[in-house]
Design a protein that fits this description.
Layout (H helix, E strand, L loop, with lengths): L2 H10 L21 H4 L4 H16 L3 E11 L10 H7 L2 E3 L6 E13 L5 E4 L1 H4 L4 E6 L2 E4 L1 E6 L4 E5 L21 E6 L7 E12 L9 E4 L11 E4 L4 E8 L10 E5 H14 L5 E2 L2 E4 L3 H7 L7 E6 L4 H5 L6 E5 L2 E2 L3 H9 L6 E8 L2 E8 L1 E2 L5
């Protein structure tokens, strides 16, 4: 075959698109008429803000993986057969009771607080774990737990690193319903996922048994987001993502974050003491019904009804008795046990506070010296 014939034959088999011919995608490849028109819109400006927040935080949000050894319930020899071991995962036999052991893994999110490696996350992410590993931009570090507080669900970690990029902490007291927010984390192990939404509510206290205040958001938060930052449009962390409300385990648009002002106080104490020191006055609170409030001569069922007093405790020493209703602390109104807990737990240990109780249909003042809450309480 001559050179000219061979060249002709090759050209016949070149795909139409490579010959510059029109194809079925040519019309769809035309630029959208909205492309230039919308560039100056407010939505594009918001999009630029989201881009900026991600760029600001992509090196400050970390991936946390955890591991602990648990004893499985049953033992069977096939767990030690290589085939079944590969299928079910690594197993080991406890020398003490011959129960098989298994490695249980977990994951979460954290964010950098300092250039030298202090990191904030949730208590429940690292609690009772044998090992905690932090990944910063594909580099792994073994983490130490400096302190962890179950009541607020805040933990402080430390890795041996330098020149890290800390976040910017904001003021959660200034958060308003309707504010736009961004969450960055590792949902289901998908590293550095960013979602957005608004603040749905502030001061949610019914989320846990002790009435901690929470920020509610509809920004998508899923398993693995725990411990990550909730960020405002100024690029400031206003909360620590904690949990979702869900029947299925997936996001339903209801997520909760610990206010950053609460976290700041806890983190400072964890750094200083390895734990949080809380005030304590030695009373147990009972429900105050509307009927019983009327019987006591109260206009409303407001206050904290003392159900019992710890013998020899601060309140017992001050003269407070079972059946008293605490209506004020340092002249601040107490509407329920959550107010009482908030004020007492943040009071300075060793200092006296003025406790106003309702007794025999009149108010009586006592001075109670605040003690440190025992770990078991």
């Amino acid at each position: 075959m001559s050179g000219a014939v061979l060249l002709f034959a090759v050209i016949l088999f070149v795909p139409g698109g490579l010959r510059g011919e029109s194809n079925f995608l040519s019309e769809a490849n035309l630029p959208s008429p909205l492309k230039d028109k919308n560039r100056e819109s407010a939505v594009y400006e918001l999009q630029k803000t989201f881009h900026g927040i991600y760029e600001l935080y992509k090196d400050s949000v970390v991936y946390i993986s955890t591991e602990k050894t648990i004893k499985t319930r049953y033992y069977h020899p096939f767990f030690y057969d290589p085939f079944f071991r590969d299928f079910f995962g690594p197993q080991g036999r406890s020398k003490k009771n011959k129960q098989p052991e298994q490695k249980q893994k977990g994951l979460g999110t954290g964010f950098i607080l300092s250039k030298d490696g202090y990191i904030c996350t949730n208590h429940h992410v690292v609690n009772k774990m044998d090992s905690v590993t932090v990944m910063v931009n594909d580099k792994e570090y073994k983490a130490r737990i400096i302190g962890s507080d179950e009541l607020t669900d805040i933990a402080l970690l430390k890795i041996d690193a330098t020149n890290l990029k800390p976040v910017y902490l904001g003021d959660s007291d200034s958060v308003k319903v309707g504010d736009m927010t961004v969450a960055i984390g590792n949902p289901f192990g998908l590293d550095k996922t960013m979602t957005s939404g608004i603040i749905s509510a502030t001061g949610r206290r019914e989320i846990d048994n002790i009435g901690n205040s929470h920020i509610q958001t509809d920004a998508s938060i899923n398993p693995g987001n725990s411990g990550g930052p909730l960020i405002n449009l100024d690029g400031e962390v206003i909360g620590v993502n904690r949990m979702i409300y869900s029947n299925s385990g997936g996001n339903l648009g209801i997520g909760f974050a610990i206010p950053i002002n609460t976290a700041k106080n806890v983190l400072a104490q964890l750094k200083e003491n390895g734990k949080v020191k809380r005030g304590y006055i030695g009373v147990q609170i009972s429900p105050l019904t509307e009927e019983y409030a009327k019987e006591l001569g109260l206009e409303k069922p407001e206050g904290a009804l003392v159900g019992s007093v710890e013998s020899g405790g601060p309140s017992d020493k001050a003269g407070i008795r079972e059946g008293d209703v605490i209506i004020k602390l340092n002249d601040m109104e107490v509407t329920d046990f959550k107010d009482l807990l908030d004020i007492v737990s943040t009071s300075e240990i060793g200092k006296s506070i003025k406790v106003t109780v309702w007794r025999n249909k009149k108010s009586v003042n006592f001075w109670v010296t605040v003690a440190e809450r025992p770990l078991s309480q």
